[in-house]
Amino acid sequence: MKYFNMPLLYRTITQIRDATDSREHITGRAGFGLAMNYFPIQRFTITPEKMLLGTNKRPDITIEKWDNNGSFPQCYVEFKGRAGDNF
Asked: Is the pTM above the cut of 0.90?
């Protein structure tokens, strides 16, 4: 995969595998980097912990696509630690 050729992103991904501490912020570091790679700032915004209207849910990041009419959610991402958390 092409992001394995990006040294910093590769390091954040391998840290998940190699670290004894794999809490949510460790996976979130790599996940946020992947989101920035696949959703470029020219067309998308990444908003942390945006409250979803009507549900009171708050995903770790919301990715919104922008066009001439404004923004609309593209996807929601919830990060979990490697061990002990359910997806």
From this structure: no
